[in-house]
Amino acid sequence: MTTTDRPASPDAGATAGEVLDRLRTLQQADLPVHGGRTLAYVYDSGLAEVDRVGREAVAAYAGSNGLDPTAFPSLLRMENDLVAFAARLLDAPDTVVGSVTSGGTESVLLAVQTARDARPDVARPSMVLPATAHAAFHKAAHYFGVEARLVPVGPDFRADVAATAAAIDDSTVLVVASAPSYAHGVVDPVTELAALASSRGIRCHVDACIGGWVLPYAARLGRAVPPWTFAVDGVTSISVDLHKYAYAPKGTSLLLHRTPALRRPQLFASAAWPGYTMLNPTMQSTRSGGPTAGAWAVVRTLGDAGYERLTADVLEATDQIVAGVADIDALRVVAAPDSTLVALATDATCDAFTVCDEMTARGWYVQPQMSHAGQPPTIHLSVSAATLAGVGDFLVALRESVAAAVAAGPVAVDAGVADYIRSLDPAALTDDDFDGLLAASGLVGEAADGGLALPERMAEVNAMLDLASPAMREALLVTFLDRLSRPTSA
C-alpha cells in the first residue's frame, strides 16, 4: 500500500459520494462477480434482473434482525418458504424442517454439532467421512471435539462403502456423503452409505451445498443422477447452499432435517443470565435479514421453470468444456462430472499452477488445487450458467494457456527453498522461520508500511506450498493470513 492508497483518517469523516467512490476504487482489485469468467467463489446466473432483485431485497432488509422471529415475522415467513421450496426439490417427507444459515460451512457445522449433541451417551464421538468430504467437516471436528475418521475413495473418487463400514464403531454419531464432492465433482454412493448408517442407528448427512440446487433439475432434464435426496432411506439431513446454484446473494444456505426430533439438538436456549432468554436455531444470534430476503426474492423471481432453464445452461456449458478439454494435449478431465464441477490435470510436460496463471492473464480465474494423497495438483472449475455464453472463448484461452505452460516447462522450486521448507517444523513455526520463507519466495512487499504483496503470478508460490506437507501448508497459510489481517496506519 502506497501513501496515496491510504484511506483518509476516519476522524475526518467523508461525504457519501466520497465513500462510495472509494468503495468502487477498492473493488477494482477484486475478481469480477459477473460475466461468467470467475470459475470459483461466485456463481453467476447471467441475469441482470435477478441480480437487481436480490440486491434490492438485501438492502431493504439489511437492518432487520433474524434473532427474534416474533419481532420480524416476515423473515420467519421467508425462511419457511425457502425451506418448503427446497423440501420439494429434495424429495423430503411432510415432516421435514430446516433453517437458513450463513453458508455451507455453518450448515455442516450444525449438522455435526446436532449429531454430537443427540448422543450425550457417547463420551468421545466420531464421524466417518470420505477423504474427499469438504474441509468444513474438519473444521467441525476441530470446533466440537468430534473425531473425523477419513476413509479412502475408489479410483472413481467416490466413497468406499466397505472402508466406511470398517471405520464405524460404537462411538460413531454421523456418516457423511457428498453430492457432489467439491474437489472432483462426483456424487458418493449415498444409498449404500445411508443404509449402512441406518443399520447401525447412526445419522447420515448429505453435503449437497454445491449440487443441491442443480442435481434435481438435472434429473428432470433426463440426466443420470445417482440417488442422494431424502428419497434415499437413511438420509437424515441435507445441506444445500442458496448462494451457489440458487444464484442468491452471498450469505445463505439451508440445513434440512428429516424430522423435528432430529433437528431438536440443533436449537439452543439459555436463560442463565439476567438479560433476555437467548433462543437460536443456528450458530448466529443476531442475523441480518438481508441475505434471507435476498435469497427469497431471487428464488421467487426465478421459480421452478427459471432454475430448470439455468440448470440446462450450466450443464451444457460443463459438457462443452469437458468435450473441449478432450482435444487439448497435456490436459485431461480427472473424473466425469456428475454436476457442474470439473477437475483438470496436466501431464508431465507442464503444471497446473502455470496454467492457472496463464488463464488469469487471459481474463479467466480458475482455482488451483494442491496435490493430495498421491494425486497430482489439479485445476478446479465451478461452472456457472453465465459461463455458457463464453465457453468458446474459455476453451481458446485454455488451449493457449496450456501451450504457454508447456513452452515454459513445469515450474521448479529452488532447491534451497525446498530444503528450507522440509527443515521446518509446522508445530514450532516461528516468525523468523516465516520471514525467511517469505524472503525466499518473494512474498514480501516493498511498500512503506512493510505489508505483504502477492506476486502477479502465483505458480512458483503454489509449487512451493505443494512441496509442503499438509500440516506445514496449514501452518504457513495461517501465518500468512495473520500477516495479511493486520491494520495499516492511516
Automatic annotation (TrEMBL):
Question: Which GO molecular function, any one, fits this protein according to its record?
Answer: pyridoxal phosphate binding
Modification N6-(pyridoxal phosphate)lysine, positions: 244
Q: Which domain of life is it from?
A: Bacteria
The cofactor(s) it depends on are: pyridoxal 5'-phosphate
- Keyword line: Aminotransferase, Lyase, Pyridoxal phosphate, Transferase
Q: What Gene3D superfamilies would the database entry show?
A: Aspartate Aminotransferase, domain 1, Type I PLP-dependent aspartate aminotransferase-like (Major domain)
Q: Please provide the Gene Ontology terms (biological process) for this protein.
A: carboxylic acid metabolic process
Q: Which InterPro entries match?
A: GrpII_AminoAcid_Decarb (IPR050477), PyrdxlP-dep_de-COase (IPR002129), PyrdxlP-dep_Trfase (IPR015424), PyrdxlP-dep_Trfase_major (IPR015421), PyrdxlP-dep_Trfase_small (IPR015422)
- Pfam families according to UniProt: Pyridoxal_deC
| Family the UniProt entry places it in | Belongs to the group II decarboxylase family. Sphingosine-1-phosphate lyase subfamily.
Q: What is this protein called?
A: Aminotransferase class V-fold PLP-dependent enzyme
